[in-house]
Write a structure and sequence with these properties.
binds zinc ion; RNA-binding; U6 snRNA binding; Torus; five-stranded antiparallel beta sheet; alpha+beta
Amino acid sequence: MSSSNLSKEGWEESEFPILCETCLGENPYMRMTRQAHGRECKICERPFTIFRWCPGRNMRYKKTEICQTCAKLKNICQTCMFDLEYGLPVQVRDNILNVDAGAVPQSDVNREYFIQNAEKQLADGQHYLEYQGADSAAKETLRRMARKEPYYKRNRAHICSFFVKGECTRGETCPYRHELPTEQEKTKTNFKDRYYGNNDPLAKRVMEKVGERVQLQPPEDPTVTSLFITGVTSDISQEDLQRVFAAFGEIRSVVLSHAKKCAFVNFLSRTAAELAVEKTYGRLAVNGIILRVAWGKPRKQGPRSELAPAKPGHNAPTQAPLPPGVAQEKAQYPSQDPTLLGAPRQ
Ligand SMILES: [Zn+2]
Ligand SMILES: [Zn+2]
Ligand SMILES: [Zn+2]
């Protein structure tokens, strides 16, 4: 396990890195070099301990890219920044668990303050992540998506740029790979985007690939015809959702809250809703933003149905459009309703 301490300057000094199995490599006896305050963390920009090692034969040297605090805050590997438990990109994990990816501030001043506090809490042995409280169905989805074995191919040497131009003269002795890059390998890693889960192209590919394998069971109650969409940022308008989902059948209403980053898409028929889930679950991207799709909940008895504004005594049915006068955008969700904060239970 890892241990890290702070030096006089408040910089991290650690004895062992936090790594996933893939980055660690097959050879348990590999040697690791360690350089205290060797470089700045790619996220918080503070100096931290850099580790370098070779994860196996014909593999490239790897090094830690982000500090231990930044890694712990997201429960990710210090080198590849994949989630330590599921081996998936942060954006995929947070999307499916419906955890707020924006928890670590991205502006310098706020982040510094946040990280200092977080370090105190981590030092006290507190768990920083809120993933424990995440929906169990969502966790199960992640488990099904997770890679079961380490993926050592990811550690291979980089592609030889001279070979690509037809200019490498080193032949067999060239330490780089003589292959043409795939589309995937042409995309450069943007550490911050991957860390914060902002439009990570890798996350998008994982979602597309996995979406074909993982299917969502429709709720037993046949009256449920609404989908619950999360991750809806201000880049996405009600019209965008309307346009995307109209392809599956007639829509009764789309209710969107940018404040809650979620929306409900209510179909007229169950068939349309099922088709929409089948076609979009795990692979919905609108304006380049990955969205999470889940089924809406069955109609509840009483005034607090999920689409109704929090008006005591106002008994709006779940799938009715909002009453006139309530702007779609500013639909008031019952703020204390925990089911709205987490993913809906299936
Ligand atoms: Zn850091
Ligand atoms: Zn890793
Ligand atoms: Zn070469």
